[in-house]
Design a protein that fits this description.
The protein has 431 residues and is α/β, with parallel strands linked by helices. It has twelve helices and 19 strands. Strands 13-12-11-14-15-19-16 form a seven-stranded mixed sheet, with helices on both faces. Helix 8 packs across helix 9 and helix 9 packs parallel to helix 10.
């Protein structure tokens, strides 16, 4: 058997007694170059205190940084019956050398003794449960998956950095490009498991430590963004996604900034009148509409429990006051609202056609209804209803890309494309 033993950044000092005993009996020891130099002094020290017989020679030592070069020596040792030990970082089966070892030797000849992974150690240092955490590795990879992961607004995201491609600074730039710096605490963990480990939180804009260790990872922990010091100082529209409070159980369920801007334009907001935001989510589109047109009466409707309090809190953050915020399901709950001049229908579900039919019965002459959609099937279902009601119909597809760092340049990471269906009711439609 090849014994594969995980270590933390503390190296040999952090090994369990059973792992140390395997190491003392080894005839071949393989380890990353950073550990290899400590093995012979350790062996001599063990002999000096009698834990290894003085007549036992130091085992053969080989670097494991290039796994393809260790296959032959391991095969020879196993064939000769020489105990072989391979020291690896953390859990060898989690982004470690374990996968390559399995390809070469098969599971029957391998026995794994994992150490806590850097991910486990990082959350342990923060004292935070991590069963709800997501993780992503940027080792040798483009950063696009990180941008995509952030769109989903995970409660916690561990990022295994690649120091050769920017490390923690790359993560920070992607976080800023996603407009989410205010929505996440940025934790930097260095040399986790080593006596000189360091875990610190960095504020937005705070520089990385000049002595940042190459062995580091980043934890992004979602937290309520601080309220704006002065809502009047915010941009008129096109606010960063990270400014809005989110539902804890569905944190990424909101209209992204680029789509919000387009929907606000398509609504052709009047100076006064009634705006319905049906399926309002966190209220982002309707609340931004009030910043543009404070004379509008916004009625927000959302079926999810707790939405009224969340939308109210977001309205306070933006310094606007909706006419009404209700929790309920459309189309039934629409009966309680005043007739609209503008309607935004968000969300999905099987009731979409029934909701649109109810809206068209109430929409005032010259009114506008705008519906963002994710699928062609939804477009095929709803467009005929607008046409049958005599609306002037427009269809568009919109997709945005956000810049993400790539080596010394920038690449564009795509957001999900969105179809926008728009209907304008003629002013004379109701006589």
């Amino acid at each position: 058997m090849l014994e594969v033993i995980g270590t933390d950044a503390g190296g040999l000092a952090g090994l369990a007694p059973r792992s140390l005993e395997l190491l003392r009996r080894a005839g071949l020891v393989l380890a990353p170059a950073r550990l290899l130099g400590t093995l012979e002094p350790w062996w001599r020290a063990e002999q000096a205190v009698g834990r290894i017989p003085a007549e036992c020679p130091c085992p053969q030592l080989l670097a494991s940084d290039r796994p393809e070069q260790i296959v032959g020596p391991v095969e020879d040792a196993l064939a000769a019956g020489r105990p072989a030990v391979l020291l690896a970082s953390g859990d060898p089966l989690w982004f470690g050398i374990g996968r390559l070892l399995l390809q070469h030797f098969g599971a029957a000849r391998l026995r794994f003794q994992p150490a806590p992974s850097s991910l486990q150690l990082a959350f342990a240092r923060l004292g935070r449960p991590w069963q709800d955490a997501s993780w992503i590795s940027l080792h040798g990879r483009d950063p696009e998956p990180l941008a995509a992961a952030l769109q989903k607004r995970p409660a916690a995201l561990a990022v295994l950095t690649d120091p050769g491609r920017g490390g923690a600074e790359e993560v920070r730039r992607i976080l800023a490009a996603s407009g989410l710096e205010a929505a996440y605490a940025f934790w930097l963990g260095e040399r986790l498991g080593h006596p000189e480990e360091r875990v610190q939180r960095l504020a937005p804009g705070e520089p990385l430590p000049v002595d940042c260790d190459p062995l580091h990872l980043v934890l992004l922990i979602a937290e309520p963004p601080p309220p704006p010091a002065d809502p009047a100082a915010l941009p008129l529209f096109g606010l960063d996604d990270g400014l809005f409070l989110q539902h804890d159980d569905r944190p990424g369920l909101m209209t992204k900034r680029e789509v919000r801007i387009q929907l606000l334009a398509d609504l052709e907001l009047p100076a006064a009148g009634v705006l319905w935001d049906v399926g309002a989510g966190v209220g982002s589109v309707g609340l931004e509409a009030l910043r543009l047109r404070p004379g509008l009466a916004l009625w927000a409707l959302e079926a999810r429990g707790g939405s009224a309090a969340l939308i109210t809190a977001n309205a306070e953050r933006l310094g606007v006051r909706p006419a009404g915020i209700q929790e309920g399901r459309a189309p039934e709950a629409l009966a309680q609202l005043p007739d609209p001049d503008r309607v935004l229908i968000g969300g999905g579900g099987r009731e979409r056609a029934a909701v649109l039919a109810a809206v068209l019965q109430r929409l005032r002459p010259g009114g506008v209804v705008v519906i963002p959609l994710a699928t062609l099937e939804a477009l095929a279902e709803l467009r005929p209803l607008l046409e049958q009601a005599g609306c002037r119909v427009a269809v568009a597809q919109h997709q945005a890309w956000r810049g993400a760092p790539l080596a010394d340049g920038t690449r564009l990471a795509p957001l999900n494309p969105v179809l926008v269906l728009k209907g304008v009711l003629p002013a004379a439609a109701l006589g």
